[in-house]
Amino acid sequence: MKAGIERALHTAWSKKGGFSLAMWPLSKLYGAIVDHRKAGFLRHPDRIHHDTLPVVVVGNIYVGGTGKTPVVIALVEALQARGWQPGVISRGYGARPSDKPRAGRGTLDPALFGDEPALVAAHTGAPVCVHPDRQAAIRRLRRQYPQVDVVISDDGLQHLALGRDLEIIVQDGRGVGNGRLLPAGPLREPATRLETVDFIINNLLPGEAPPPSLGLARVLNMSMEPARVEHLASGESLSWREWLSKHGQRPCAAAAAIGRPQRFFDMLRHHGLTLAHTLALPDHYDYEQSPFEPLQAESILITPKDAVKCRKFGDARLYCVHPAPSFSDPAWFDHAHEMLKAISSLKLASTHAEELNSEF
Asked: What is the DSSP letter of 200?
């Protein structure tokens, strides 16, 4: 039901039709609220927390999933390879509420951290801290993991109290939709927001055209390709080609509880798999009970985001497809690295200057 409503909304938001026109007055009210909030922070810059470490925000302005988490994972791993020790903060959507931030690394319980933070921690080994108050999350992260020297915020673009040094927007082929703010359109902020960020990453399906570029941001395209497949029950891991050769001729199904499940199904089909059944579940589905029983298939392929919640079922049919992002401009990691080095040096110099001034 929820997934059907979401599909209908996104279809309506792709054009300036009757629904969008009817919602236009509410959209103007929403825009006024957004402007008022921003003006409040401009008048009171002391309300913005600027950390002494570089802070990178990976977010979007299009409501719903656009593929931020694969970018966060890729960025964390790229920075680790270049000598950084990143830590990740997140709101922890879907996690059990807590007054205090939760921090951890390695294998984390998605019920306590949220499925996406648990996935980031499992893939990268980086420390993760979750809390709606991003400043509190940074403080806890740094206190528990003092070796962290750069903070990556998974989402938080609209969290105005969070000071940031680099902004990365991830969008898919829908771009800005009909260009209107919620609820007349899909945007949390005006489309002009794209003109003020550092990087724009277009998460595209094979053959999909990128949206028009805005502003001076470094723009690149990303596509997801299946890299390896893990059997959840045994832990056996095969490359995609090996798995396809071994299992691809048998009846296969796929299930996904992500922002756009069809993207996962299309990726599998594009890379050679025939699917007998597909199961699209709501984003952040809780998996309190297994939804896989009705599927008549020898193999059921799921996403890594779903796998962190599905190991408990012990279903021998479940395989996790680990996709790898491919970027049209891989040098963007080097560019981000150099920018962060410069930012880190400036912050360090500023901190030293403040310490010296406090002595006199």
From this structure: E
Are 158 and 59 in the same domain? yes
pTM equals 0.93
Cα end-to-end distance, the chain, whole Å: 65
In degrees and rounded to multiples of 5, residue 188 shows phi and psi of -85, -25
Look at residues 158, 159, 168, 138 and name the one whose alpha carbon lies nearest to residue 150. Answer: 138
Tell me if 300 sits within 8 A of 255, measured CB to CB. yes
pLDDT tens-place string over residues 222-256 = 999 999 999 999 999 999 999 999 999 999 999 99
Report d(CA 287, CA 171) in Å as an integer.
27
Is residue 17 one of the residues assigned to a domain?
no
Contact between 158 and 30 (Cβ < 8 Å): no
CATH of residue 62: 3.40.50.300
| Dist. CA 140–CA 146, nearest whole Å | 10
Q: How many CA atoms, within 13 angstroms, populate the side-chain half-sphere of residue 340?
A: 28
